[in-house]
Write a structure and sequence with these properties.
Blueprint (H helix, E strand, L loop, with lengths): L1 H4 L2 H9 L8 E14 L2 E13 L5 E3 L4 E3 L1 H7 L3 E6 L1 H11 L9
Antiparallel strand pairs: 1-2, 1-5, 2-3, 3-4
């Protein structure tokens, strides 16, 4: 999972570009996530993250490769939205920046 976590923006952008997800919304924001510090000590810290809200309102987290009830996800991970993107907006932002995100500073 740690390898996937380092690629949340690419994973989320790739998922939203699937034709079956054209009405979904890509979210860039932050979540509280476990972080291994040393000697097996795990602390939680706020990190930049990307996830998708589908047309039914459920959350898909590409790092965990799992769907969640939206209220549960936002509560469990203390998710904070920074920016929402439609598929078209995400594709345009990726083209301008040359990256899969985050784009809210461009």
């Amino acid at each position: 999972m740690e390898r996937r976590q380092e690629h949340c923006f690419e994973l989320a952008f790739g998922a939203i570009r699937d034709p079956h997800h054209e009405s979904d919304t890509l979210i860039h924001g932050t979540v509280i996530a476990p972080h291994k510090v040393r000697r097996g000590v795990i602390k939680r810290r706020r990190i930049s993250h990307a996830w998708i809200i589908d047309h039914r309102g459920a959350v898909y987290d590409p790092v965990l490769d799992r769907r969640f009830d939206r209220a549960h996800y936002y509560r469990a991970f203390a998710a904070i939205e920074v920016r929402r993107y439609s598929v078209i907006e995400a594709t345009q932002a990726a083209a301008v920046s040359g990256t899969s995100g985050p784009w809210h500073d461009i």
